[in-house]
């Protein structure tokens, strides 16, 4: 029964491995020839992927805000002026903005105290040493791909469906999307993307196995806030890839889980 719950997550992890393998083969083929030409081509692909990641982060943030308003409208709590487009857009900030801000602040504090960024980079360095430094910055590819593949409502809802109903259809759809994404990301981020399959399996598998316990906590409101936090981290990740910032994204990762604690806590007191 437990294996059945994990089936969707296993398929998703295998899709990431398969897509990464294809991407690495393409990278090797593209890299053949003059070193200067291959370096310029690799840099061009990397920057292009970074721009796509930025678009994903911005889109995810907007979706989280819009979903807040849709949820409020269904509950009869939206009091915005729908006849005024400018006012309507201004209202799309979402009512969980404060939860997202607090989650980011507390998440950064927890991540910094635990120094998660240093831990994951040390792990990446060990892998690089074992591989005789053939694969470049493993840690960067691992963190980037893990965040991209595991942030979003499709990950959480799909894993809950697998655990509660044995319905893996949403994770199958996600697997196809991740397969294509893994091909593209591994072209620029290297073998670290393939290693992110382990994080995908652990993260999604944990939600599926614990679905009966955590499903009451993961309300639509919580999932929306978690997606909003994750999308902000994706924006930060893209800015790192473009060389604009040098944020230690891994230190902010605990923030993704905090809305699941903060929103029920706020509901309890209010």
List the main descriptive attributes of the protein structure presented here.
mainly alpha, 270 residues
What does this structure look like?
The chain has 270 residues and is mainly alpha-helical. Helices cover 78% and strands 0% of the residues. It has helices spanning 2-31, 35-74, 85-90, 97-114, 116-130, 138-150, 153-165, 169-189, 192-209, 211-214, 220-241, 259-269. Helix 5 crosses helix 6, helix 7 (153-165) packs across helix 8 and helix 7 packs across helix 9. The mean pLDDT is 82.
What order do the helices and strands come in, and which of them pair?
Layout: H1 2-31, H2 35-74, H3 85-90, H4 97-114, H5 116-130, H6 138-150, H7 153-165, H8 169-189, H9 192-209, H10 211-214, H11 220-241, H12 259-269
Helix pairs in contact: 1-7, 1-8, 1-9, 2-8, 2-11, 4-11, 5-6, 6-8, 6-9, 7-8, 7-9, 11-12
Distance between the termini: 39 Å
Strand content: under 5%
Question: Which percent range fits the helix content?
Answer: over 70%
In N-to-C order, the SSE pattern is HHHHHHHHHHHH
**What is the rounded Rg?**
20 Å
The largest pleated sheet is described as:
none
Number of helices: 12
Mean pLDDT: 82
Overall SS class: mainly alpha
Tell how many strands the DSSP assignment holds. Answer: 0
Q: What's the oligomerization state?
A: single chain
**What overall geometry do the principal axes of the alpha carbons give?**
globular
* Poorly predicted ranges: none
